[in-house]
Structure formats: C-alpha cells, structure tokens
Design brief:
- The complex is a heterodimer.
- By secondary structure, chain A is α/β, with parallel strands linked by helices.
- Chain A has helices at residues 2-6, 8-31, 36-62, 69-84, 87-93, 108-137, 139-159, 161-164, 182-200, 202-212, 214-219, 224-250, 260-273, 278-305, 311-334, 345-353, 412-419, 450-456, 473-487, 496-502, 518-530, 548-565, 576-582, 600-605, 607-614, and strands at 170-171, 252-253, 372-383, 386-397, 401-405, 427-436, 439-444, 458-460, 536-540, 568-572, 585-590, 593-598.
- In chain A, the strands form 3 sheets. In chain A, strands 8-9-10-5-11-12 form a 6-stranded mixed sheet, sandwiched between helices. Chain A has a 4-stranded antiparallel sheet with strand order 4-3-6-7, with helices on one face.
- In chain A, helix 3 runs antiparallel to helix 12 and helix 9 runs antiparallel to helix 12.
- Chain B has a single domain, classed as ABC transporter involved in vitamin B12 uptake, BtuC (Orthogonal Bundle), CATH 1.10.3470.
- In chain B, a hairpin with a 2-residue loop joins strand 2 (130-133) and strand 3.
- Chain B starts with a helix and ends in a 14-residue tail after the last helix.
- Classes of the chains: A alpha/beta, B mainly alpha.
- Chains A and B meet through helix 6, helix 7, helix 13 and helix 15 of A and helix 4, helix 9 and helix 11 of B.
C-alpha cells in the first residue's frame, strides 16, 4: 500500500479513484429516496463533471481561455444525434440530410465513438491554426479563434437545417435516452484519470511551464505549440464524449444546447474550484450544482408564497445566470486561481502515506568537459531606423567566464537576444562548435528558434527575472531537467535535488516560485539554467537589484555552478566589482560596437572604455 | 460596377457601427490590456432606454437620441467602477473572464426585470426611406450613419492628437508604466478611456437601434462580436486598425451576401467567422501591426 502511494502514478490513480468515489457517492446520497428530478440532476452533474474535466485539460494546462470547446461539443452532439437517430425519424425531421446519413443508424456506443473521431479531426485542424497564432502573439488571438469557432458552429447549426434540423434541432423519438448511468461512470473515471495523468506527464508539465511564462519556456527549450496541440486533442476527445452523453440524456440537440449559457455554466464550474486542478474542477461542479439547486428551491419558495404563477418563468433563468455571472465576477476579483488552485488529492495521499525524502548527496564538480567554442561574428541589428548593433561579436570557450559590459543602451542584451533567437539579426552569424568523436562539429545558431538554441546547449536567464511563478521551486528546475533529458543526452549530470541543495533552495523546494524573495528567485533562475545541462549559461544582469554583499556572493555561486555542470558562462552586468571578480575575459560594447576586449585589467586600463563609461567625447566612434 | 458601389455603400453603413464599437474596444485594450466582452452591454442598456423613452414615456425618437448616448457613457463608466478597476493588471485570463461575467450579469438582470421577450419601440420614419440615384438605391440611414461616424472619428482623432487627454491615453497604451512615470494618472486616464469608449458606443447604439427598433437581453451580443472581431482584425489595441477592421468587416459581409450561392446566404455570418479564423491563422498579429521589440 505504501509502495503504491509513494509512487507517482500509483498515488495519482488512487487519488483519481477517491475523487470519483466522492462525487458519485455524494450524488447517489442526494438522489436516493428523492424525487425523480433529483435523479436527473445528479446525472446532469456527472455529465457536467466530464465536460468540465475536458475543459480543464486544455484551459488548465495551456492557460488559453477557450470558448470554442462548446463548438466542439456541438459538433460532437450533432454527429452523435445524426448517427444514433433511427432512419424513420430522420426521414421526418431532416429529410434532405446529405452524406448518405439518411440510411445510417448506429447503436449509441458506436455513434459516440464516431462522434469523437469526427470532433477530434476538427480539433486537429483548429489546433493547427491555434498553434500558429498562439505561438506568435499570445493567448488573446487564440481566444478569439475559439470564439469564432463557437459562433460558426452555432450559425451553421441554426441555418443549415438540412443537416441540423435548424432552430428546433434533432430530437430522439425515444425521449430521454440514458436509462443506466454505467457509461457515464466509465467516461467519468476515464476522464479523471486521463486528466490527472496528463497534468503530470512530460508534455503536460512543459505546457504548464509555457502557460506560466511563454518566453522563459521557449528559452528553456520548450516548443509551446506541441503541448498545446496534445492538450487540445485530449480535451476535445473528453468534451466530445461528454457532449454525446449530454445529447443522449437530454434526448435532443439544438443550437442552444451548446452555446453561451452552457459555456458560462461550465466555465464557472471550472474556475471556482481551480482551473489548474482536476480535484478543483470536480469541486467546482459539485459546488455550482448545489448552488444551482438551492436557487431553484428559493425560486420555488417564492412562487409558493407569491401570487403569480408567471413569476416562475421570469425568475428562474435570470436568477441562475445572475448567480453564475456573480460567482464568476467574484472569483475573478477575489480569488482568480480558484479555491484550491492546483492541489490534487494525491498530493495529500503522498504526504500522508508516502515515504519521507532523503537529503541528496552534495554536488561534486563535473570533470573538465570537451572544449567548445561560441563564435558570434559581425552581428548587425536594426530596430526600425535605429541601429542597435553594428558588426558586434564575441568569442567564448566553455572553459571560461566571459563578461559583456557597456553603458545602458550599448546593445548588450540585444546581442544576447540575437544569440538566443529572440531577436532577428539583419546580418552576421553565430556558431556553436563542439568537439565530438568525429572531430569538431559546428552548429549554426543565428536565426534558429529560441527553443532550438536552448536545445543546442545555450541556457539563459533574464534581466527582469522570468520564473514559472505558480510552479514550485523544484518543478521550475525539473522543467529544465525534463528538456535536458530529452535533448541534451550524455554525461552523468547532477540531479535536480543536488542542484537545489547546492543553491540553498532545498528547504523551500515545495514553495511556489512567486513566493520566493528576490535573492532566492535570482538563484533559482540560475539553477534552472544550469539544470538544462548547457554548454554555456548566458546571464543577463544576474546581480541587478542585489546589494553589494549579495553580488559578491554571486561571484562564487556562478563559478561553482558553472564548474558543477561543466558549462561556460557569458555574463552581462553593470556591477564592475562583480564582473571583474567573476570574468576571465571581458568585452566592452558601446553604441552597438565592440570597443575593447581583454582581461579585466586590460579593460580597466583601456582609454576607450573609460571614455564610454565616463563620457569623454573624443575617444569613441561617433554613432 | 453599380453593384459594387451599391455593396460598398451598404457595407460602409454596417461597417461604420462595427468601426465605432471596435475603436472603443481598442481604446480600452490600450489602457487595460483587456478585451472587453461587456462592451455590447452598452448597446443592450441603450436599447432598453430607447424602449423606455419611446414606449413607456411615449416621446419621439429625437428624445431617445441624447438619452441613449448618455446611457451608453454612464454604463461604460459604471461597469469600470464596479468591476474592471478591481482586476487591473491581472492576467489576460482573469480580465477576459471578468468582462465575460459582466456581459452575463447585465444580460441576466434584463432577463429578470424585463423578461426574455423582444420589446419593440418606434423608429424614425426616415430610417426606412431609400433614395434612388440612377441605378443606386441608397438607404437614408446608411448616409446618416456614415456621416455621423465620419464626424465622430474626426472629433476622436482631434481628441487623441491634440488634447492632453488623448496624448496621455496614447502614451498609456504604448507603455503604461512609462506613462505613469511621466505624470499620467492611471485612474483618470482609464476612467476617461471608458468615457470615450462609451461615447463611441453611444453613437453606434443610436444608429443601430434606429435600424432594428428592438430591445431584448441579447441585443448587444451580435454587435459586440462584430466589434471584437473588427478590433482584432485591425491588430488589437491599434486604434486606426480597429476602424479599418470594422469597415472591412461590414463591406465583406455585404459582398459575401451577394456572392454566396443561394443556399449558403443563411449562414453568411458563419462564413465570415470561418474566414476570420483563417485570417488569424495566416496573420495572427492583425492587419495593422507595429513591431515593437520584445522586452526581456
């Protein structure tokens, strides 16, 4: 038992089972002995739970707000209804149905399976579009594409009556179709397990990193499009199953079955508990069902006491929506991450029943690595009319620490951005040459995507600190190690735990990155870069915002960490004491050009450097 | 050729309303970085005001004009005060859902108080009149809306280019932190952005309601969608782009309606949405896109 609960997957399966049991037993307890209406309510709650878990897989892991999932649900619902309705009934309500559907009548299971296939194919097409837009301009464009999808499906549903039965939709002759909840139970437990395992899967975790900080994720070697695509396909499949069940249960599908009202309901359910948690999604479903049922009772009470029967019709729809809209507004303002954020039952199971964790071995210095050379030659960058870099370059071996200094606006960060693929250069080249068994191997990196550069072995940090704020300290480092294990093969590298101990972050490994103080956050970013098992670590102002004492400490930390993972360092900084202490060689940039290069002593003595820093006019080339 | 000119005029008539709404959405996106899904509710509220003026009070449509305008401005400011100021600076996700929630709340309040049914109110009799110039049939309301939009845009451009308010608004849209350091007061500029967006929506509402003459809880939904899509076609937050986006959307709708085969005319909107989705796949940054260096 302890072995089961100590293992990751084991505890997740056990947690999923507990979650399923709690929801189902709670529902059965409420339904037992009550009116048939309660029975229907519980059935609907279970179907809603599947639907919301489907939404969670995409929205939770990618952070993209999708309205389109109800569009997918509608496609699936129509496909199911068209396939499952009897031939005679179809001849009456949709006599001119195309594609030869008029002679098809499948059993519900086959119809639902076909509906999933159809919907997933549509999902793949939409996903390709989303990947293109999402990777370029963030989540807002993706949200709008999904919204356009929802409205497109709704329009077609209402207007293309030959296929969809128009505004009245398609209804089953048999009335309410589901007479046993067996398939709902099967679908629900499957949905919970799929969602939970995906959340902790490699792709799921990389998607969460991209959700937290797209730019940092790409600089860590993650290609966000792939995770989004997988999440979309999985989530569309689950949503599609839920949609078929809902249509079967309602006995009808119409344009309004999967539209704004249902979008609102399911989104509220998703965010109330916590969109990043499967337990949270289920909690939200249960809570909102209770709230909905209570308002319904309130409305009933008012009708019993009041004079007008008509009040019922007016009051009910409006009141429910006000409660839903109000909950959504309230949660967004006061608790946008939901009640339990990203907590899962298995977290508790593992802590309660699992084995305690041993403090790992201390870190040893890595053996001297094979020599590698980073050559950045003649880089020119124009921003509109402004030339940020003019034929700038640097040479660095992975056995040394190279500094890049220069006044504000000299182009230091731009040079780093060119090397890591964030800024496109107008001209010039950057090459990483590694010694391998068959001699030197040159890998061009200028013009590559940021995640390709990271995978080639260049890890970077950011001037303004880009951690994955909602993930734990350990998970931040784990993400980099995950990328390294796939794309940076070879060598025995320090474990994530060793790195955390080394940086003094072991005690706070389970805290969220956003809760760290500034110095520790800087340290975490450094360790995260080191965990990528890079050839070079590129540091953009690692001491900015630190006190003098802290930045002197940073000298040793940078050197020790570089030695531990066997990486070279290229560092930008303003702090001359830090730069002089940490660097073997220094390049000085001014107005986009390299004006000096040499050892720290040579740089200090250089008249051009002094001119650039102190502002004497004559020395530097006019810009 | 005549057909094309005809379509162009019809399309600009429609597109003007989209452009005004899109511009308001772009202005708010500029200062708050939020896509305002509650923008259509300004039209819903205006519609019920028009109903109250025209039917309950029994006044003529001219009385509704200033009141509709004021209702839109007032609602815009009220929504900012009640909901949006609390989520300033939150994640995109939080702000999107906040405005989505407001959209639903306003709608639900009208369902509760007024019922879900359609309420009709009188429209000016000239709204249906058509001028025939040669082979062209020009709807008077199209001319009115195009003229009013042009005038409104001229005033807006003046406001944005020449007044302190406009300059601080544009500065805030460019870089809010820098603008604040330069002495722009965030409360004031955001409130005024909502006033401006409300005023633009007010003008749009006047003509939109003259055309439809109906009020119901979901009145604002369709114009909202078109406004958002237009704003995003134009490159979100880009004010000039939003106006182009609106006009382009209006014209392409009318053109599609005349080009599409008979049995697809019913789903023109569906086709438009599909085209827009395609457009984003190939140009996710929108029509007008000012490249700015990514801050890292």
């Amino acid at each position: 038992m302890q072995a089961l609960l100590s293992s990751r997957v084991g505890s997740q399966l056990a947690g999923s089972g507990v979650l399923f049991a709690v929801l189902v037993l709670g529902g059965l307890a409420y339904a037992s002995g009550g009116a048939p209406a309660r029975d229907i309510l519980v059935t609907q709650m279970l179907i809603n739970a599947i639907m919301v878990i489907g939404l969670q897989i995409y929205i939770g892991n990618t952070g993209v707000l999708s309205f389109g999932h109800m569009g997918f649900a509608a496609i699936s619902g129509y496909a199911f209804a068209l396939l499952a309705t009897t031939v005679e009934r179809k001849a009456r309500i949709v006599p001119d149905v195309p594609l030869g559907l008029d002679s098809v009548s499948l059993n519900p299971l086959a119809a639902a399976a076909t509906a999933v296939v159809v919907t997933v194919v549509v999902g793949l097409v939409v996903g390709l579009g989303l990947a293109r837009s999402g990777a370029k301009s963030g989540a807002v464009a993706a949200t709008v594409i999904t919204l356009a999808l929802l409205f497109m499906v709704h329009e077609v549903g209402g207007a293309y009556a030959d296929l969809t039965g128009g505004r009245n939709g398609i209804s089953f002759s048999v009335g309410r179709g589901l007479d046993s909840r067996l398939w709902i139970y099967v679908a629900l437990i499957a949905a919970i397990v799929v969602a939970r395992l995906f959340k902790s899967s490699r792709i799921g975790r990389l998607a969460q990193a991209a959700r937290e900080d797209d730019l940092a994720a790409r600089a860590m070697g993650i290609s966000p499009a792939r995770g989004q695509m997988v999440a979309l396909v999985l989530s569309v499949a689950v949503v599609s199953v839920a949609a078929s069940l809902r249509v079967f249960q309602l006995g009808t599908v119409a344009p309004s079955t999967f539209f704004f009202d249902y979008t609102l309901l399911t989104l509220v359910m998703l965010i109330v508990g916590g969109r990043n948690s499967i337990a949270g999604s289920v909690l939200g479903v249960a809570l909102m069902t209770v709230v909905d049922e209570t308002t319904r009772h309130l409305a009933d009470v008012e009708i019993d006491g009041g004079p007008a029967e008509a009040l019922d019709i007016v009051l009910r729809p409006g009141l429910t929506d006000i409660v839903l809209g109000g909950s959504m507004l309230g949660f967004m303002i006061f608790r946008a991450r939901g009640l339990i954020e990203d907590w899962e039952i298995d977290h508790w199971l593992r802590r309660r029943f699992g084995r305690a964790e041993a403090v790992p071995e201390p870190l040893r210095a890595a053996p001297t690595p094979e020599e590698a050379q980073l050559s950045v030659v003649d880089i020119t960058v124009d921003f509109g009319g402004f030339r940020a870099l003019e034929k700038a370059g640097l040479e660095a071996s992975n056995l040394e620490v190279v500094g890049l200094i220069g006044p504000n606006g000299a182009g230091k960060t731009t040079l780093l951005n060119v090397v890591t693929g964030l800024v496109e250069a107008t001209g010039g080249s950057a090459t990483l040459t590694e010694q391998s068994a068959g001699g030197p191997e040159a890998c061009p990196i200028a013009g590559a995507q940021p995640f390709e550069v990271a995978r080639a072995g260049l890890a970077r940090t950011f001037q303004n600190l880009r951690l994955f704020p909602a993930l734990t300290v350990r998970e931040n480092v784990n993400i980099a190690a995950l990328v390294a294990s796939r794309h940076r093969p070879g060598g025995d590298r320090p474990s994530v735990e060793q790195l955390l101990v080394h940086a003094g972050l072991w005690e706070m490994r389970d805290r969220r990155a956003r809760e760290l103080d500034y110095g520790n956050a800087r340290r975490l970013e450094l360790v995260r870069a080191a965990a990528l098992s890079p050839v070079y670590i590129l540091l953009d102002e690692p001491t900015s915002g630190m006190s003098n004492v802290e930045s002197v400490d940073m000298i040793d930390e940078v050197r020790a960490l570089a030695a531990a993972v066997g990486a070279g360092v290229v560092v930008i900084d303003h702090d001359l004491a830090f730069i002089t202490g940490v660097c073997d060689r220094i390049y000085c940039l001014d107005q986009g050009r390299v004006i000096a290069a040499g050892t720290p002593e040579e740089i200090h003595a250089d008249p051009q450097v002094q001119a650039a820093y102190l502002g004497a006019a004559a020395a530097g080339p006019a810009g | 050729m005549i057909d094309l000119v005809q379509s162009l005029i019809d399309g600009l008539g429609r597109g003007s309303i989209y452009a005004l709404l899109a511009l308001g959405i772009a202005v708010i996106f500029g200062v708050m970085h939020m896509v305002n899904f509650a923008h259509g509710e300004l039209i819903t509220v205006s519609a019920y005001v028009a109903f109250a003026v025209g039917v309950t009070a029994g006044w003529g449509w001219w009385a509704a004009v200033p009141l509709v305008f004021c209702a839109a401005v007032g609602t815009s400011v009220a929504i900012e005060f009640i909901a949006f100021r609390w989520v300033r600076g939150s994640s995109d996700f939080t702000m999107l859902l906040t405005s989505f929630a407001v959209h639903f709340l306003v709608q639900a309040i009208f369902v509760m108080t007024m019922g879900a049914s359609v309420r009709s109110f009188p429209r000016p009799e000239w709204a249906d009149r058509v001028w025939s110039v040669g082979d062209l049939n020009i709807q008077v309301i199209d001319v009115a809306v195009i003229g009013a939009t042009a005038a409104t845009l001229a005033v807006t451009v003046y406001l944005l280019q020449r007044t302190m308010f406009g300059i601080s608004l544009r500065a805030a849209a460019e870089d809010f932190d820098a603008a604040r350091l330069m002495g722009v007061r965030s409360n004031k500029v955001i409130r005024r952005a909502f006033i401006l967006a409300g005023a633009l929506a007010g003008i749009a509402a006047i003509f939109f309601l003259m055309r439809t003459g109906q009020a119901r809880p979901t009145t604002g939904l369709s114009p909202l969608l078109k406004g958002i899509l237009a704003a995003i076609i134009g490159g979100l937050g880009n004010m000039r782009g939003a106006v182009y986006g609106g006009l382009l959307l209006g014209v392409s709708e009318v053109l599609l309606r005349s080009w599409l085969p008979e049995d697809l005319v019913g789903i023109t909107d569906g086709v438009v949405f599909a085209l827009i989705a395609l457009f984003f796949i190939f140009r996710p940054q929108g029509l007008v896109y000012v490249r700015s260096a990514e801050r890292v």
